Amino acid sequence: MKRVLFFGLLSFFVLSSCKDDNGEILPSLNKVTRVICYKDGNSEPDGSLEIVYNSQGDVDQMKVYKGREYVRSYHYRINSSSVSVSYTDFSNGSPVNYSPEGYRSFILGSGRVGTEKIKELNDLSGVTQETYIKETWAYFYSGSWLTGGNWTLTWPNETGGGYTTRSYPGALSYTYKSGNLNTFSYKMTYDMSFEYTEIPTPSNFPLRIIRLIDLDTWDIVDPLNFYYGSNSGKLPAKVTLVEVPNVSTPIEEYTFDFRTLNEYVTEMYITRVKDGTTSSYKYTFEYNYKPSF
Predict the structure, then answer these.
(1) What is the pTM of this model?
(2) Which helix H or strand E contains 13, and what residues bound it?
(3) CB-CB contact of 253 with 195 (8 Å)
(4) Of the candidates 203, 197, 212, which has an alpha carbon nearest to the alpha carbon of residue 268?
(5) pLDDT tens for each residue of 129-166
(6) What is the rounded CA–CA span in Å between residue 1 and residue 150?
(7) Phi/psi at 14 (nearest 5 deg)?
C-alpha cells in the first residue's frame, strides 16, 4: 500500500472519533474505496474494484476492472427497506445496460437481507431484453446471526415457452462457535468448515462467505456483505470444503493471511488448493471514504 495511505489513516484515528454508549471516545473507521487483486505472484493486477459512496455513506457505484481495463459498472439504489443493483457492461467496447430495474434486488428487514432475487435475460423467449427471476433466496436469522436460507431456482423451457421452477427448502445452513462461523452447508452438495486467526474482524472489512468462495468474482469482498447480519469476530485462517457425501476428502482448501495497520486490513493473501492445483491471490485495500458525524 502507498505510504501516504498509512499516514492518512494514522491521522484519521486522531482527528475523527465518536462516542460509545458510555461516553468513551472511539475511533471511526473509513470505508473501503479500492480493492486490487494480484494473482500467482504477478506484479500486474488481475483486476480491481473502485467503490463510490453517496453523501449518506451508502454504496452508490462499484467500478470493476479486469487487469487495467474498465469492464463493468454496478449501480446501487439503497433505502431502509430495499437494495436494487443494475449494471452496465463495457467489455465489448460499447456500454450495454442490463436490467435497469435491478438485476439483483434485496428486501431488507432490520437492516438485514431477508429476500434476495437475481434476474437474468431469457435468450429463448424471442423477446428482446425479457428478464425473469432466476434465483430467489429467502434468509432467516437467530437474532442478528444468519442461520439458513431457502432457494428457489427458475429456468426457461427450451421448447413450448414458459418456465420451470424448483424449490429447495433449507438449502443453506450456518452454525457458529465462539462468535465465529463454524460450519456452512449447501444442502446435499458441499460442506465448509472454518478455522480462525486471533485477529479481530474490523467493522469496515467486507470479507464474508455467504454461499460459496469464487475468487474469479468479487463476491467475498462485496460491500453488500454487510447486509447479512453479524460477521465472525475473528478473521479466517483456513476454510476447508468437502463434497457431500464424500466428506472425508477435501476438494478445496483456502488458507488466509492478513497484513494490518491498527484496525485496518491493508493486505489479504489467499492460497487455494483445488484439483491438485495451487493458486495464490493477493488483495490490497484502500480506505478513503470518511464517515461524517
Answers:
(1) 0.85
(2) helix 3-15
(3) no
(4) 197
(5) 678 899 999 999 999 999 999 999 999 998 878 899 99
(6) 40
(7) -80, -40
